[in-house]
Write a structure and sequence with these properties.
Blueprint (H helix, E strand, L loop, with lengths): L29 E4 L8 E4 L4 E4 L11 H12 L8 H16 L4 E5 L3 H14 L3 E7 L7 H8 L6 E6 L1 H8 L5 H23 L4 E3 L4 H7 L23 E3 L7 H10 L4 H4 L19 H20 L8 E15 L2 E15 L5 E3 L4 H14 L3 E6 L13
Parallel strand pairs: 4-5, 4-7, 5-6, 7-8, 10-12
Antiparallel strand pairs: 1-2, 2-3, 9-10, 10-11
Helix pairs in contact: 2-3, 2-8, 3-8, 5-6, 10-11
The structure holds xanthosine-5'-monophosphate.
Length: about 400
Amino acid sequence: TCPLFQGIPSEGISWMSHGDYMAQVPSGFSLTAHTKMCPNAAIADVQRGFYGVQYHPEVNHTEYGMEMIRNFLYSVCHANGDWTMHDFCQSAIAAIRKKVGSGKVLLALSGGVDSSVAAALLAEAVGNQLTCVFVDHGLLRLHEGDEVEAAFSKWNLHFRRVNAETRFLGKLAGVEEPEQKRKIVGEEFIRVFEEEAKKIGAVDFLAQGTIYPDVIESGTGEAATIKSHHNVGGLPDHMKLSLIEPLRELFKDEVRQVAKELGLPDTIVWRQPFPGPGLAIRVLGEVTRERLDILRAADSIVQEELRNSGWYRKVWQGFAVLLPLRTVGVMGDGRTYEHVIALRIVDSVDAMTADWSRLPTDLIAKISGRIINEVNGVNRVVYDVSSKPPSTIEWE
Ligand code: XMP
């Protein structure tokens, strides 16, 4: 009878972490849902308009999650439903124009969805007052740099692609320790970016693709450093630029709608998350051009097969990892002693927790077969079946 569950069957599947447990319903609230294992899965105080659910109505696997959110928005909060991404774009563009005036804006473009959409909004708003700096550190996936460059050719903006592969690989030579790799790439990135900024001259604003989850996460105070995440946020203070963050209030799916609205290609709109240190943390052990090329070739097969089978958008991330070891195989009459590729394909809601994707075995077989047949130097493929925690999504 709870307003949240109007028009929904009395039983259904919802995703919930059973590690959490509410022992007692607070006063004023009544219990509105339970599971076999958990007596208190949802509560409500209809009078005060307070609703609490312990499960995740927002994940796809929750059968009636969308209906519950819809009920909450329209029946409980009486929302009008007039927030559209078209309106958002129009008002964001107007706000950027007002703020920037005749100033110059600098943006570090990574090619990921967030920075690309921020760039596209700024391009619409202030065109050639914007300079996008795209640092190609040589740790990108196959053809990624060209795709990003092509996507921005429709706008009249200054696009600077810095080909810094030699520089990054030089710094990474001989380094095997993951945290050290992350620090090197992060620091070098800032240095290259600063140098480019100097070449451009007087700049007034720095634009960033910060989205709402980033805002929340950075507000939670001290958390253990599991891995140092490198984003362009860490620019030195002395650059003294005023920040423009047009996506601060948006969630990822809204950012994607904005991207579509602005006409960015699907390859960017639907791009899976990609770590700042790039393939440096997916080539385990030493990072060399040769090992990066092996990984790129294997990874492009993973991307292609996930896309062709329709799984690319269903999983959170799917990629290849090059392991720092070689194993024995047999090819024709001969013995081989070659590299191993691991497939890391995960489901997740927010990357805080994740589980390995139950891909159809035929698809795994196809990916594995293609990698071993088509990528020189690889004679074995393994599938990672660990969840986060205790593992992480990336291997380093
Ligand atoms: P982990 O490996 O910590 O990754 O489970 C969680 C999510 O974050 C991505 N990731 C990064 N993203 N800079 C980023 O912007 C980074 O340094 C970085 N390291 C990991 C990872 O791909 C996954 O989506």
